Amino acid sequence: MFNKDVSTQDENSPLKQTITYTKHLTLKHQQSSFSIEFSALDFQDPGIVQYAYMLENFDSGWNQIGNQNKATFTNLPPGDYVFKVKSTNRLGGWIDNPRELKITILPPWYKTDWAYAGYIIVFILFIAGIKKIITRINRYRNELTVEKRINEEKLKFFTNISHEIRTPLTLILGPLEDLKQKTRDISPEIYREVMIIHKNGKRMLHLINQLLDFRKIQNNKMKLKVAPLDIIKFCREVFDSFLPMAQHKNLELDFVADKESSEIWADTTQLDVVLYNIMSNAIKFTPPGKKVTISLEHITKDKLAISVTDEGKGIPERNVKDLFTRYTILSNREASGTGIGLSLAYEITRLHGGELKVDSKEGKGSTFKIILHKGRKHLEGRSDIEFIERTDNHFHPITEDVIEPEREKITVVENSIQEKKATALVIEDNREILNYICSALSRNFSTTKATNAREALDIIEEKHPDIIITDVMMPGMDGMELTQLLKKDFGTSHIPVIMLTAKTEMEDQISGLQCGADAYLQKPFNTKLLNTIALNLIEQRKRIIAKFRDNKTIDPETLKVTSKDEEFLKTLVSYIQENYSKEFTIEELAGQLCVSRTVFYNKVKGLTGMSPVEFVRQLKLKIAAQLLEKGYNVSEVSFQVGFNDVKYFSRQFKTLFGYPPSKHKVEM
Asked: Model-level pTM?
């Protein structure tokens, strides 16, 4: 094999014994080329011996090869063969007794019976898989058709409902417009509430109009009424209408144009929708102190670009491709939205024959570019375009609906006796709701505002409010995490917390209460109910403190407090009982309880309603009462509890118990 003799001693040799005694030879498929030598063993005259051989299942007859004694085969296909060889005698006659050797050449693994069986099974599975995929595709296609039809019906129903909503909205906004004109007849407080209703009513009407316009575009029923328009002047008006909003957010707003004027053909109302959505998003998502720029640039003789650039958070690259898809709401943006605005702006720009592009880098900001054609040739011949006369009506109703005039800003009227009110910290990321809650609480509480949890923690550390009212859904740390943090912190664990949230599921309410909230109120909430709950929590704390203060025994357990607070009070009372004859300082007591002076003061004040000095004095007077019961006279008791002036001791004792110490045994 391979021009080398095969020995039984070779590694992996096909010969198990010498070829002379081998009856059946098995070869692998790569051993299909080989030679076999043979001899008749005629030692007298071997040169006259003739040979012939045949390989059954390969040769059709005998191969006479003269006196050669070697047969060679190359690239035999796998199968079973019988090698036969015969020779002549000395007289030249053929000896009819051929020698035989069975030879089997094994096929490669991929041509075995098991392989073919596997091929058949794989083919059957492949056909079954194709059939299943086709069935699934058909099912998905049918489901998609049905779902599309259902969505169309839902959208049609919602559109019809939107039309119906416009009627009561009109009846709401109409009387509100009349009320706005009667500013002399209504109080400032009522006027503020009217403005809140009016502003949000118009915002709701604007959203409904957007939905209806979007529906028109989907059904190819939107028609543009185009007229010549000075786009530079138009964009300047839009820019000016956003100045109050930018000033309110402390943003720098810049306008740049490469020409004084430039004329295009466009639908003023619809183009206003495009610019409003892009500008409002830019201002909404740009942090205070940053810049928003609107610029106009003539790209070519027939094209111009309106760019709105902000310095906000930017949009992740993975989200850019879905930005103009309807109902897409980006998860990385803090503010919420309907997901219609940018899609509507994209479709309206497309109807104008233009393009809306976005270039954004996360962490650096975004640039939205509206590319429009000049002239009217690109709009001619279209059934959805109506050419009208030039109009000078550049009024922007949308921006006026949403931008809040200075007179509409909600402010909390500070009361001259505010220092007597309990202090409430309100945490809400929506400034309008924040102002509204503070306004609703202003009669009963001195309110402080915070727009996020981090800001609230700084205020709590500084002002230590009597009650905290927090929203649940907030950027960064949410209300539940904040409540858990406050309840775990020894310095703030006693402050009552009310949660406000739009989540209405029972599991959400249970989670809110489990994290330590004292009350859970759903949005939209009744302001009277909010005031009542907040006042009840404060009053409940006052009643418990009064019960502890008026109790003649020294029993911290009468205060319904957490285990940490109870341990704190017990340690404090125990230390004072053991050292009641000493003069205490706040620093000394705070050191004994391993807290700072500020935390100690706020904790004692919050738990007992008394300053540490008043609390220590009251405890000493109660200890004095116990000593008087044991038979000590007034002077002895006075000096034992640390009062050097007996008259002062008697006066303080009478203030607490209502009678002088000399009559204590009698009263008891």
From this structure: 0.45
